[in-house]
Write a structure and sequence with these properties.
The chain has 7 helices and 9 strands, in the order αβαβαββββααααβββ. By secondary structure, the protein is an alpha+beta fold. The model has no long low-confidence stretch (mean pLDDT about 95). The strands form 2 sheets. A 5-stranded antiparallel sheet has the order 5-6-9-7-8, sandwiched between helices. α1 packs antiparallel against α3.
C-alpha cells in the first residue's frame, strides 16, 4: 500500500504527465534557489502544468492533501518569493510550459497571453504588430508575464506608462480550491461590479495562481 505522499505524487504525475513532475534532486535543483543564489529551499516535487485545467487539478489535489504550493514563473525575483521554504513539504508549480501568446489586437492595442509567456517574446510580437508593450526590465529575456503581474513589476518606463497594475485589463486565476476565475476581459472601461483582478496584481501568488492575462 502506497504511503500518502507517494499517492500524492502519483496523482500529480497523472495530472501533468510523468515527464512534467520533477521529484529527483538534480531535476528540482534549479527551482529551489533564486537566481542570485541567496535564497535556498526544498520541495516535495516541481510540477510543470501545460494548461489552466492542469493547474486547477493540481490545486484541488494540494487542497485535498494539505500540501503547500509555491507558484514560480521565470524565477527572476529579488525577494525570494518563488523559492520554497526549508521544510520540503511544498509543491512548486512552475508555469514555464504555459507560454503562448493567445492573440494580439492591433486595433484595440491589446494582447492575451498565458502566464508563462516570456516578456521579451511579447515585446517582439507587439512590435511585429506595430505596437509597443512598454514594460521593460533587466530580466525581460527570461521573466514571465504571470510573475510580472504577481509582483506588480514597474520596469524602466514606469513613469511614462505605469507599472503592471496599469497595463493589465483582464486576468485568469486559479484559486486554492481549484476554482478558475475567468476575468479575461479586454475592455478598457468595465463598470460591472468590483474590479477583483486588482486583488491579485502584486499579491505574489498568495491569493491564487495567475494563469492568463489580457494586457
Amino acid at each position: 500500500m502506497m504511503a500518502p505522499m507517494d499517492a500524492f505524487l502519483a496523482a500529480a504525475a497523472a495530472i501533468v504527465g510523468p515527464a512534467n513532475l520533477l521529484a529527483d534532486a538534480a531535476a528540482m535543483a534549479p527551482h529551489l534557489v533564486d537566481w542570485r543564489g541567496h535564497y535556498h529551499g526544498k520541495a516535495r516535487a516541481v510540477a510543470r502544468p501545460g494548461s489552466t485545467a492542469e493547474v486547477a487539478a493540481l490545486m484541488r489535489l494540494c487542497a485535498q492533501h494539505r500540501v503547500p504550493v509555491v507558484p514560480q514563473g521565470g524565477n527572476t525575483g529579488m525577494a525570494g518569493a518563488a523559492t520554497p521554504d526549508a521544510t520540503g513539504r511544498a509543491l512548486v508549480i512552475c508555469l514555464g510550459r504555459m507560454r503562448r501568446i493567445l492573440g494580439i489586437s492591433a486595433i484595440a492595442g491589446t494582447a492575451a497571453v498565458e502566464a508563462g509567456c516570456v516578456l521579451a517574446e511579447l515585446q517582439q510580437a507587439a512590435e511585429a504588430a506595430g505596437l509597443l508593450f512598454p514594460l521593460s526590465l533587466g530580466a525581460e529575456g527570461s521573466c514571465q508575464l504571470g510573475g510580472n503581474i504577481a509582483t506588480s513589476a514597474g520596469g524602466t518606463a514606469v513613469l511614462r506608462y505605469g507599472g503592471m497594475r496599469d497595463l493589465v485589463l483582464g486576468l485568469e486565476v486559479v484559486l486554492a480550491d481549484g476554482s478558475v476565475c475567468d476575468w479575461m476581459s479586454p475592455l478598457r472601461k468595465n463598470a460591472a461590479g468590483y474590479d477583483l483582478k486588482q486583488l491579485f496584481i502584486g499579491a505574489e501568488g498568495t491569493l491564487g495562481i495567475i494563469t492568463g492575462a489580457v494586457v
